Amino acid sequence: MHGLHDAAGRGGLGAVMGSKNLKAVAVRGHNLPPVADEERIKEIRQQLIANPHPMSQYGTGGPELPGMEITGNLPVRNFRDGLFPEVKDITGVAMKDSGIRLGMDGCFACAVRCKKVVKFDEPYIVDPDYGRRPEYETIAAFGSNCGIGNLKAICKANELCGAYGIDTISAGGSIAFTMECFEKGLLTIKDTGGLDLRFGNHEAMLQAIELINKRKDWANC
Ligand code: SF4
Fold first, then answer.
1. Residue 144 CA to ligand 1 centre (angstroms)
2. C-alpha–C-alpha distance, residues 81 and 179, integer Å
């Protein structure tokens, strides 16, 4: 994790650090890097401010999400299905329209600012310190791939993973796989300790993240 809400989660870097008992790398500095042409940098900055990048409005997982469903690029129910009628309910546009999005944020000094900041208090509390920035991959992993069209539950899943330092894509993919095993009877409610892990059950999905974080096996949950 860098900061509280951004994760370089896909390369297994956390596992490498863990294997070396390395908890964190801290960097501090005060010198500005030299700029070859300061005036040109200012010009470019003004151009970017005058012509905002399309990602500045919704970030990833915005209005293009329904198109991804139509073209078969959206993972649905453990990559098994193609259609997800609730897709419009889980986009960055829906985040803005529903009022749960506070605004946009960005990485240090970036003019694009493609990061959505989400905050709400019911039915769950989502802390924007951890809960900002549900990206396309997170929306797809906890949303369509788990058969879940509940935007607030997806944002809560994102917040929990940010707080626990869990990779959202792997967590969502693992839960979707487990949901398919459950649907096919390879896992039963006895195996899951009473958790009804059917596709679309957002409460079970959130509970599964808690279990992953606590490293509890199903039988003892
Ligand atoms: S640097 Fe950060 S804020 Fe800027 S476009 Fe890339 S991911 Fe988005």
1. 24
2. 13
